[in-house]
Amino acid sequence: MLQLYIILGIVAIYLYFKWHLSFFIRRGIAGPKPLPFVGNLWNYVSYKKHFGQIYDEMYLSYPKANYVGFFKMSQPAVLVRDLDIVKNVLAGDFSSFHENDFTVDPKLDPLAINNVFIAAGDRWKMIRSQVSPLFTYPKIKACFPIIDVVRQSLVKYIESGPESTNPDGIETKSLGERFTTDVVASVAFGVEGMAFTDPNSDFKRMATTSLFSVSFISKDLDTWLRSIINQIIKRREETGEIRQDFLQAFIEMRKKDTQNILDENLIVGQSLTFITDGIETSSTLISFALYELAQHPEITRLVQEEIDVVYERHGGRMTEEGVMQLEYLEQVLFETLRLHSAVFSLAKVATKDYTFPSQFPGSNQCLAIPKGTTVIIPVNAIHHDPAHYPNPYIFDPSRFAENERKLRHRYAYLGFGEGPRICLGQKFGLYQTKCALSAILRHFNLTLSPKTIVPPPVSKKSFLLACEEGIWVKFKKRNT
């Protein structure tokens, strides 16, 4: 009898999985065949491939489809290919997809739920309304004197720092982290990061630590952030010190906050946004921009010519307005982000039942998905689609000249996301990256070190773009 129950149990489990995994088949939707429990992500959970690579393969396997049905572990999900549908998901039908696909426990992660990227619903609207005024260009340009001090430290470090005599050159991700750490420490918190001068800098060590642990935000990072922010606020309240940084802006907003919205968790959560956007993603952009420029001296020369002209226009120095005038350098950064997307995909969750149009042109077979379904926008695959970018693996900044951009679908470029949840730190990230690269290219020529593997191997475990072996570049002093 026991054997019969076991057999019946096995049969019941088999029939359930067969029925559950036929979700898309029963709806006439094409997609890769899933496995029980892991769906279509076996190569990811076994560390054979990055999830972004799996999404790229799905994208390429269904070239005529508007979207693809697949299983994200045990749950049905949709990968979108058509740019008009991408537009609807990110903007047009935003009310149906206003949350990013992140599940965090508020008790475990009080910081995460106050991060503008992760926050949902009314909390996201409230946080966005409080934070977005801090990222206007007038506010950002006002930070230039602070950033310029770090620019000078950057040049000095390349010239005479401990890595200046290394025959392999300098590892550019670490170099970028030193710059962005010192910028964010000063601009956001009004303290010295000391990333260029102190190899044991607490700010650099904590700010570049992994965000991921059992909870989304590591406990050490949570504790450290709360400690440093509370110390700064206490000191300023006791001494009456006022600084022109982003933390001061939060302090001033909290004084006017009669509803107690700006509590400690929210302020610390937004400080985390500065660390992720201001340090991690910007340092990666600096690293890969140097990687591409080191391989393309003709493009580097054009950037240097633009920088030299701007310097001369402003009396032999860079200014806050001069940074804004580096248009070709900005094209270089957009093209770098196209080739090396900081995030491989955007993951949204349906906040209500939703119906997609037909999967294939000419078909009347639509797809209705229930609330809670994950929808993937495969950023990396879209950025490398020759239908949007001819010769997509060629580094060509002219793709982002104004006349060229007008010819493309707006949603063919998603380096910072799009729609209401576009990256709020986009302007600041681009500005500080232009500050760094304009300082480097004003003073140095670049060559790629033989130590650098081409193309750089990407970590299969990291949520954000991360190079496993590092990117090494040699710097040679220019005659300017």
From TrEMBL:
InterPro entries (UniProt xref): Cyt_P450, Cyt_P450_CS, Cyt_P450_E_grp-I, Cyt_P450_sf, Insect_CytP450_Detox
Keyword Manganese in record: no
One Gene Ontology term of the molecular function aspect: monooxygenase activity
Membrane topology field: Peripheral membrane protein
GO cellular component, one term: endoplasmic reticulum membrane
Gene3D superfamilies listed in its UniProt record: Cytochrome P450 (1.10.630.10)
CDD domains: CYP6-like
Keywords: Endoplasmic reticulum, Heme, Iron, Membrane, Metal-binding, Microsome, Monooxygenase, Oxidoreductase
Names of required cofactors: heme
Positions annotated to bind heme: 423
Subcellular location: Endoplasmic reticulum membrane; Microsome membrane
Broad class of where this protein is predominantly found: endoplasmic reticulum
Pfam families: p450
Record has Repeat as a keyword: no
Family statement drawn from the similarity comment of this UniProt entry: Belongs to the cytochrome P450 family.
PANTHER family xrefs: CYTOCHROME P450, CYTOCHROME P450 308A1-RELATED
Identification of the protein by name: Uncharacterized protein
